[in-house]
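Collaborator request, handled under Task 6.
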Amino acid sequence: MTAGFPGFSPDFEARLERLALRFRRPATGRWAGAQRSRAVGRGLAFADHRPYAEGDEPRLVDWRAYARHGRLYTRRFEEDRDRTVTLAVDVSASMDHGEGPSHKGLYARRLAAALAQVAVLRHLRVEVLCVRDGRLEPGPVVTARSGLPAAFRFLGGVREGGAARLGEVGALLRSRRTLILLSDLLEPDWERGTALLGGPGQAGAVLQVLAPDEWEPPLGGEVELVDAETGEVREVQLTPAGLAGYRCRLDAFLGAVRARCGRQGLTHAALNTATAVEEAVLRVLPATGLLDR
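Structure tokens returned to the collaborator:
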């Protein structure tokens, strides 16, 4: 899967096989599968004990507990559940920024490709969507490794444009049980959109992707800033004082997103596209708890 998009090396793909997705909330899917749910059943992870009842299988009796307490207890396990992992990638015009591997849109799509591979290799179902103009553009639904090339072709063929309109998209995404949104969130409606995510029964993450010059604009007199989605133009003075003010506003913005995600039970990661996708997957996202190595 190294030819063309997403262009991962065989070594990186081998390392993806050792990763697993983890979310702050448990799964609520219906079918037996590879992720953990609060539903108690016959999965592999021990949950707790309950007093033995007639008809319980003898092999589930905890004989060590009986030796300690003189009473029969039945072991209960957390049932593993299948989940459809929805990868929603913002392909609005603001994502069409940056050069080469640091291009925000390309970065988000390659990151989505890596996460899709992690999920499918853990026997999860993956739904790939693009977010644009308040709509969801559906891509392939992948249920096995053999379906990954179709997802990669879809993600590799996308071109950014239009507006995200996250407020409208959030309402469409709230029904997804497990959601990962990849976006720069650079629009006024970001708060309304993310407020609709992370509702009861939904697990997920918001991966916020920003280009290097959005993290640290270069100094050098007046700069004309153009909103890629609205066309609004502003001239700003990037003096040391102006740059310090920009950093404060960026920190406040990222803090507000992080706080919103925390209240919604979502994992949040702010990613600099100067960091290689491979490093983000192997080092940055495991540090947030989204990936287990």
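The cover message to the collaborator said: "Residues 56 and 105 are 54 Å apart (CA to CA). The chain has a mean pLDDT of 86. Please let us know whether this matches your experimental observations."
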